[in-house]
Amino acid sequence: MAASRSTAPPPMTQPADLPDAAALLARADECRTPCGDGAMVWRLWGSGRPLVLLHGGSGSWNHWLRNIEPLAATGRRLFVPDLPGFGDSACPASGNDADAVVEPVLDGLRALLGTAPVDVLAFSFGSLVAALAAAAHPQRIARLVIAGAPVKPLVPPPFKLRPWLHVQDEAQRRAIHRHNLAALMLARPESVTEQTVDLHAQNLLRDRMRERRLSRTDAMARALERLECPLDVIYGREDALYRGRWGEVEAQLRALTRLRSLHFVDGAGHWVQYEEPAAFHAAVAQALG
């Protein structure tokens, strides 16, 4: 096991390298699998060995907006869902936390890919879903790479988010979204662009899975202890979840027999794959080899 540090509406302000979401969607193949009273929506890009990407809480496929094309270019067929209860996907049949999402995801993978084990790259809430799935159904996941994972209970939350649902004024709402992105998701002020606020605001409006009880427990740690597949872990060094507590996190992860590598990406916050995509891709390439 190795540890390493990777370096590296009106018109909207956006970085020059931010892909156009509509154009990216237009190039995707879309599939639907049963979920609750409706369907789980999957977008597929690229060709080659399958790689499943699971997004974070209050998110959708666009949590991977900056990563789709680089990952597909490595010779992978990407399977990128809106998780149940998020984005365009229906809610699961019951429950409103990560444990309720596991079976619809596995059912969808079975419908799309059969029973062969797959590689999974998961972010934040999605990493909890993936860990629970791998622990309960070890034959389904061949390799697991998790980023921004809630491996230690978040009690109390190490960040303070401002409520926004009650706010009617759009400018005030956007100001709250900017604050919350800076408090939790992104480390650098310049990362909180108007385009980023737009993505975040759209995802929040379609989040119907607002319960996060499992992140306040040791559910993730217990699931990781039961893993049978290789595990690689990536964090932004400035991730608000555990900034200042990396010693505790590393100690817990290093005790896992299946841990292959632990990477810290300098200059990145929680949404590491969005804020420092090049360094993130280098870490993923090393993990997936």
TrEMBL record:
AB hydrolase-1 domain sequence ranges: 50-165
Name recorded for this polypeptide: Alpha/beta fold hydrolase
Organism: Ramlibacter lithotrophicus
Entry keywords, A to Z: Hydrolase
GO molecular function, a single term: hydrolase activity
SUPFAM superfamilies with a match to the protein in the record: alpha/beta-Hydrolases
Signal peptide coordinates: none
InterPro entries hit by this protein: AB_hydrolase_1 (IPR000073), AB_hydrolase_fold (IPR029058), Epox_hydrolase-like (IPR000639)
Transmembrane segments: none
